[in-house]
Amino acid sequence: MNAFLTSIGYMHWVLPVLLLLPVLGAVAIWIQGAPGGLPGDDDVASGAASVPRVMALITFGIEFVVSAGLWWSFDAASAGWQAVFDRPWIGAWGIRFTVGIDGISLMMILLTTGTMFLAVLGSWTSVRKRTHTYYALLLLLTTGMLGVFMALDLFLFYVMWEVMLVPMYFIIGVWGGERRIYASLKFFLYTMIGSMLMLVAIVYLGIAARSPMTGIPNFSYDVIMQTAKIPPSTAFWLFGAFFLAFAVKVPMFPFHTWLPDAHVEAPTAGSVVLASIMLKLGTFGFLRLAVPLLQAVATNATVRAIILSLAVIGIVYGALVSLVQPDFKKLVAYSSVSHLGFVMLGIFALTVQSVQGALMVMINHGISTGALFFLIGMIYERRHTRLIEDYGGLARVVPMFAAALTLVTFSSIGVPGTNGFVGEFLVLIGAFRTYPMFAFVATTAVIFSAAYMLLAIQRILFNPLDKPVNFHIPDLNRRELALLVPLLAAIIWLGVYPKPVLDRMQVSAEHFVQTVQDRAQLMAAVGGGN
Known about the structure:
The protein is mainly α. The protein has a domain at about 300-515. Helices cover about 75% and strands about 5% of the residues. The chain is built from 22 helices and 2 strands. It has helices at about 1-5, 10-35, 45, 50-75, 105-120, 130-150, 155-175, 180-210, 220-225, 230-250, 260-265, 270-295, 295-300, 300-325, 330-350, 350-385, 395, 400-415, 420-435, 435-460, 480-495, 500-525, and strands at about 80-90, 95-100. The chain has a two-stranded antiparallel ribbon with strand order 1-2. Helix 6 (about 130-150) runs antiparallel to helix 7 (about 155-175), helix 14 packs antiparallel against helix 15 (about 330-350) and helix 16 crosses helix 22.
């Protein structure tokens, strides 16, 4: 496979093609839907949804196939950027269109393209109005998310960060639940405030790395890493700007309050994309920008202690709040606060094992929590309620749904043999080497997660079947099974044999840890900030 991909010059064109394909698909869907019906029409019942959803499915299918070649073409032994595509963009400001990948962004790209294909299947009958616009926005959202994972120019990173914000705002605000306007505005405002601070930090770094000959700013990631001279006091302010932008997106405690509302009110695919991909943009931002660019601040003992404290508080808080949620979707939303806390613990513990564990948690949370939201959406389409108390005994009525929900629950808990175990185990082992007390406290959340998830599925699946409305709920259909099978297979594969994924991320994780530690020591020795 690698020989074939090399023969067609795959690594020279794959990244710009991955960014362009969804845009072309979105334009095609909008053009096809221009003479469509009224905004309130039921497009599924009328048949108007058939063309846009098939077009979106085909586009995402091609996108995934094109991206899959990265699995074989990527050189896991190299710590440098690969598949780099670099072109001038705004020359007067030193802004270039530069994209590339390493082992970290490789897995995020594959997670994104795979999830978005499944998101179309998950929206097949649940999104019934303005379907042309909906699927076009999903495609544009994909370009924004992929652009963040690929960007090697800081200004391009910011542009892509904003590109993915707008489609999700409309997806929640137009196709969400009863409180969709409130949830979408809250999501937009929280994220936008952080984005503005990040823009200020990026502009400062670009000017700090300007050419001494021409005075033109330079937003190249590598150039800023090598040449930007930042006073220690300023470095703390810059790190604070990045921290707020990314902590809101993760979201870390106490910046998490937008998340439950957004998850609960978003349509099923919106919740899946939020959990599986968009939350990872915050942790990816720490890995790509905040920590490597401002190593002296990121490794400052006080700063690390504060961030690790917030991470561990989020881990325990998210688990405890999940215990008392009557709404199954909100329970899973709060559990994300806990799971992403493990990622932050792994990143700032700053060992190779903890960073690799953080990356695995990012991937595994995307798979297992995405599957949970899909399953919640499937049962909601049948019963139109998310309250746990409205169910009971469903295992007798919908055995395939019950089997899938049980396996995904085990994954979310982190049962050995499922994907959830691998990442959290690595994080805790790595964190114990540098911060044993934080690792010990975080371990208690594993017990709490078992409590809230097992209690929920007991009440939904195995309590008495005592509500007549639940007697005749139809089981999973072929489309839903086709959607779930890849996720269930990934849960088992990554739980039993995660080595191929770990191998592709190992060199990048080692390079990240070594670079941060070496440069932080160097800056401390010379008395500089960065």
